[in-house]
Amino acid sequence: MRLGQLLHGQPDAQAPGAIQHALAYEVLSVAVFAGRRKRTFGRLVAMAGVAPGDRVLDVGSGPGYLTALAAEAVSPGGRAVGIDPSEPMVGQARRLRGTENCSFEVGRAEALAAADGSFDVVVSSLAVHHIPDAVRGKAFREMFRVLRPGGRILLADFRPPRGRLGRVLVGATAGPGMRDNPVDRISPMLAEAGFRVESESRVGGFLHCVRARKP
Ligand SMILES: C[S@@+](CC[C@H](N)C(=O)[O-])C[C@H]1O[C@@H](n2cnc3c(N)ncnc32)[C@H](O)[C@@H]1O
């Protein structure tokens, strides 16, 4: 059995990409970023232009590391909310990182509960490839809907390995979702959802980041 399958645990019919083993994911995340987690995620918060007073939504927030950094950056006056379909993830995020201005809710990217225009910024790290292909476009339209006009979005996801060895290793451990992750489709799909794409960049060697704005 692959590591990716172990992390996912019992499949959730509504959210097949949900990760149920929250503690194992947290440990893996610390290991994968090898001491650079704060710097890498901090860069994402800075690239998203998160500022004091902002209302930030983190989609697929997992254990809430990025959400918590965003919550620090929006103080004073702002708030950060993380959503994830996995109840164990939401529970762990609340325990580890919940604060007065940093909260977590169970939810799916393709069916956001938030009201139209209720956020200034949407961020998402390492989660786009977990959203089923069939509803990914819908998820981007939902992110568009919950942003106010002029609001920003920053999506960061794993770049697929290029070399043969990397592809074999990632395919065997994480699975085809990460090995063949179509990150080049993120920008055109955001544009289809109505966003104006502002930049595409590479962060920390293995992240593909797209920054866009709702006109
Ligand atoms: C690799 S983790 C990333 C977690 C966190 N953002 C981080 O950077 O550590 C991917 C997360 O996406 C969540 N996920 C799966 N399907 C989703 C969906 N349809 N909508 C939103 N999040 C989803 C998983 O439960 C998991 O917590």
Count of distinct strands:
7
Q: Provide the low-confidence segments as ranges.
A: none
Number of helices: 9
Strand content: 15-25%
Mean pLDDT: 93
* Distinct small molecules bound, one entry per kind: S-adenosylmethionine
Spatial order of the strands forming the largest sheet = 3-2-1-4-5-7-6
Which CATH top level class fits?
Alpha Beta
Secondary-structure arrangement, i.e. CATH architecture: 3-Layer(aba) Sandwich
- Going by CATH, the homologous superfamily would be Vaccinia Virus protein VP39
Helix content: 40-55%
Instruction: Provide the structure class.
Output: alpha/beta
Rg is 16 Å
Largest sheet: 7 strands, mixed
Using the coordinates shown, work out and report the CATH topology: Rossmann fold
| Helix and strand sequence | HHHEHEHEEHEHHHEE
Integer count of domains: 1
- Overall shape: globular
**Terminal CA distance:** 45 Å
